[in-house]
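Structure in, sequence out. Go:
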């Protein structure tokens, strides 16, 4: 008489770990985005080309500005533009995925909705490192005078501060259920960059308006290691320096606004049949 040996079956299942699942998904999504050569090329080349154009065309590139020169001021500006462009675009691609039904597929998994959104923020921040590193390196090679620690501080502020525009891109992606979300987000970002004092120093009424726009606070914080709140202006009519708490308050308020829009739009989607 022979016995049939059978392997005992376990009724227990592996516990779901949302954070670990989110990080695995973010790693896969990051690898996928890095394979999108055209998108990576655009976010790398555009800010670098703008830096070379603005720094090369300005006759004041070597003029002192704060703890560096005007080229360093331009370098920080274009690195910030590349970072927010990368984060907002990556998050905005969520609209494309949703339009293709990817959100319904994810709904069949135990992963909560917040993990999907957070993964987009993580991927956006990872992608933001690329244009910042490239622009900062090109600036160092072309005479952007900024001490090493101040350069690193500016780069760190830019990458961390780009979280706000990951929320902005997610808000656009959740509000618009089509591929136009990315275009709308990018188009509005150019307007924000202008009023954020990013491309060239504003003055007068335009500067007064700019202080209340989303990108103004982050721009001032990114330049803080070099400028400490001072805005390049006519020496005979200098502009008042921005206070640090005002810049921080601008970033906090606008991050909260974008985050509230994301949460409201996500709840609206969850309530749909």
């Amino acid at each position: 008489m022979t016995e049939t040996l059978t392997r005992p079956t376990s009724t227990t299942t592996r516990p779901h770990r949302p954070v670990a699942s989110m990080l695995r998904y973010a790693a896969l999504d990051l690898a996928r985005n890095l394979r999108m050569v055209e998108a990576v090329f655009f976010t790398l080349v555009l800010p670098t080309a703008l830096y070379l154009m603005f720094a090369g065309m300005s006759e004041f590139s070597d003029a002192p500005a704060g703890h560096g020169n005007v080229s360093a001021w331009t370098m920080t500006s274009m690195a910030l533009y590349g970072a927010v462009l990368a984060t907002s675009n990556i998050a905005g691609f969520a609209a494309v995925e949703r339009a293709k039904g990817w959100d319904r597929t994810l709904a069949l998994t135990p992963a909560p909705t917040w993990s999907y959104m957070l993964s987009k923020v993580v991927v956006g921040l990872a992608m933001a490192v690329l244009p910042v590193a490239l622009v900062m390196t090109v600036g160092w090679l072309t005479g952007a005078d900024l001490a090493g620690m101040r350069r690193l501080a500016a780069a760190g502020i830019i990458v961390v501060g780009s979280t706000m525009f990951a929320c902005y891109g997610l808000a656009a992606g959740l509000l618009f259920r089509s591929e136009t979300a990315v275009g709308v987000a990018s188009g509005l970002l150019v307007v924000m960059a202008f009023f954020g004092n990013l491309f060239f120093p504003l003055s007068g009424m335009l500067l007064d308006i700019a202080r209340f726009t989303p990108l103004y606070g982050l721009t001032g914080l990114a330049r803080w290691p070099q400028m400490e709140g001072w805005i390049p202006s006519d020496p005979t009519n200098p502009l008042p320096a921005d206070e640090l708490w005002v810049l921080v308050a601008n970033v906090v308020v606008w991050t909260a606004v974008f985050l509230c829009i994301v949460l409201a739009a996500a709840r609206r989607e969850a309530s749909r049949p």
